[in-house]
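name: query_chain
kind: protein
chains: 1
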Amino acid sequence: ELVFERLVLDDPQNHVVSKSKYVDQQALADAGETRVVFYLYQCFSRLNKVAAKLENEDYETIEKTIVSQASTCLCHCEIYPGKKIPQQVFYLLQEYHAEGGHQESLESFLKKCADCIKGRFDAEEEQVSLLEVLSHSFNLLKKRFGKVSIANRELFVLVDILKYFTKSVSMAMALLDFSTPAELVDLRSFQESLLGAPLCVSCLPRKEADPFEFFERPSQALMNEHAITESNLWLPLKGLAVELHNLFYSLLRLSPETRNRTLTWIGHCITACSERGKLWNNQVSELFMAVQSGDGFALNLGAVLLRLARPFSEPYSPKLLKVQHQYCSFEPKSEQEANATCMHIRGLSKETCLVPREEGAASESPGGPFNFSTECFFACQRILSLGFRVVHERLARLSQDLNRVRRVYEEARSQGGDSSEVTRRLQDNMEKGMTRFLSLKAVLLEPDSLEHMLQFHVACATWLCHLATAERLDAFQPLCLPFPEHGNARLAYVPEFVIENICDCIVFVKRFSEKSLALVGTNLEHLMTLILLFMGSPQRMNNPHLRARMAEMLEVLITSADDDHFSSIIPSMNRERLFRNHPFVAELPSTLLHVFVSIEMTGQSVTFEQKFHYRRPMYIVLDHLWNMPDHRSKMKSLAAEAEANIECSSPPLFLRFINLLINDAIFLLDEALSYMSRLRELQQERQQQQPLGGPLWSQGEANMQHVGMLAHFHNVMGTETIRTLAWLTTEIKSLFCHPTMVDRIATMLNYFLLHLVGPQKKNLKVKDFSEYEFKPQELVQNICRIYTNLGCANSETAQAFCVAVSRDGRSYSPELFPQAQSVLLKIGQSILSIGVGELAEKILKAASHQKQEDEAIGDAPEEFLDPIMSTIMNDPVVLPSSGITLDRSTIARHLLSDQTDPFNRSPLTMEMVTSDKDLKNKILEWRAKRMTN
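structure:
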């Protein structure tokens, strides 16, 4: 009663009695404290300081009285009118959390009060629950988190306060109850919850309409100033991730009950984020789109889960063996089953897996509850696919949009100056876009989280390889060739996003922080093993697009020209060693060619733009391999094998590869030259249009931007394809000169050389070749190299090539090579020009001989002519289903791209055709007779 009477006093400072003539001002202030919860806590703190001087019974009585009174006042605030009791818990923690000696005392005081309130409520002695008592402080905390900046030190004060509520089971359960929204599928509700609010604090805006806080007016700052701002942001971003990891770790360790509720909360968060991964969400132009709600939230949650995954983020960690691969295939039928199996992340069974499951196959039963390692592993993978990967894709699109707007801006400036309305509007858009770009890049590049992510993905690579090859999963076993197939069926339960995340992270590092690969060191070999095991195997990874993405990751492992400086010598050595000393690297050329070919053979619609993204890194890797003797030898042996088996029912790998190379070169260069010609016309039209900003100008600008973009990527891909053919033909010749291939490559080379050096070349001249990556001099040089590689030798294959060049009546003429020599001399290629001159003479002789032969056999009977090519057949064959007779080389060429009869679409292979020996003999006799005459 005495304590209660003290608490209800309105002016306790006027009732303080001092026994000493010396006045202790602090003691006087404490005794006259008007805030009820503060006064009781101070009593509790002083009691603990003198505990050693008291009898146990007295100590317990006093402590019980303090806790009881504190619990009563928190439950019945109306007893103390005007005291603002509900918020005092928050302000108590805010005032004392950083003072020395108070942390343990505060924890103990809160825990005892919380347990007392919960005990009374459970015993029905009290009608007010602990959640109701704490909700006032929780609301204050939530509002503060909703306004605090990542650069404000108050953020970490608020996190420290929040962590006090994780120190007891009763408070933690109240916190989790308060943080769980009614709408479990609404991401915004989780973001605005108490546990979600600190996860939203970032250098990115919380909501779509909020402004960006950092990198304002980026064009007015130097690059090193942006770098300083970026590094200044990394410190609080790392600190927040560390503190929130500690908070969630406390909740997980506190009790089985809080662990289950915490995992449930995380699972619902991840499910609520699932819309972020939808395709429509990643197809919007980034420059004019508001920031996507949840970017900062998803990235911070990913950073927390990466730190929770650290115990198994080591290659071949024994804890990885605990990860149950069936997790993502299992979908509980009820809440009871979900609780029994400890399944907290829903909807993963809808995700596409690495290989399709056998029809009618049921999801594997876990055979017991899923363990924490499994849930943490897949929670981490899922949030990385919805967070980091989505933001990286948006950053890449934003970069492309900015480049396009920059080109329009430069054009507008050149025509209308800096003061025009169009120029100012474009500059403003670029400023906003750069602010977004720098903010997104800063949060993705936070070094500590990036290092954790790299370690996690390397560990995942070892887990995937083990899962795919091991006969038993209870221990890691060394790999050997040929790779075992024991685990292919298990991969039907592993979502594609596991490998997508690995590829995305490594490609991001290549683009924005290549030095971070040094953090992986010699562990890069595990990524190479993953590539070799999965990239060339549809049995392990069915999606050809994903296998092509692995080729992009493979390109990252190649040392670049920027690696010459001293600081990167060791990382470069580690990466170079992969291509020379990795135990399975001999499989790399054939693996890469399998992927190259499989893009074309998907049976799906694959746009050329997709092929551009997929195949360009493959060209770079193949070029790198060609410069290594062992790999070059392997490619030459694949070419020899292809030539020896050119008429097999299944076309050899290398034959399909060069067939696609030629197909792509024909299509891409033809389209590129067409777009360049169209650009020239548009530029000429533009000079005659209305002034800058008029409707015709805007329409013409949009049209030119579209055509320019198409020209750019066709030029890049066409140039890469011709460059690849140039180095391939230095040592692989006879396959290109085989009757199946020789006419196609000869007519292709003639056609493009004529357009590049002949009278029509003036149609390709535009204002700036470099803007569209148009390199006519390089194209002429590489095309001429292919000519000399295939035709200059004194061999039957070279002669066959020369004949094929000469009999191309559409593009070849005696003037073609002198025109090419003129261009070569202008660009300093005199030696190549001499070789082209010698080849021209050889082809002239072949042309003369061909002319005589054509005159002699010009009136050939209809039955001797190939029905498709209208040329005299050399080796007539009969197609089994249609009964049509045509030349062997014609049908062989057709079957490389389409394994059907061209006349009735029936299935067809080379082994099914039959040679028409009688007709062949008749043709030979007739030809010999005509040539003799």
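note: Residues 177-203+221-278+290-386 form one domain.
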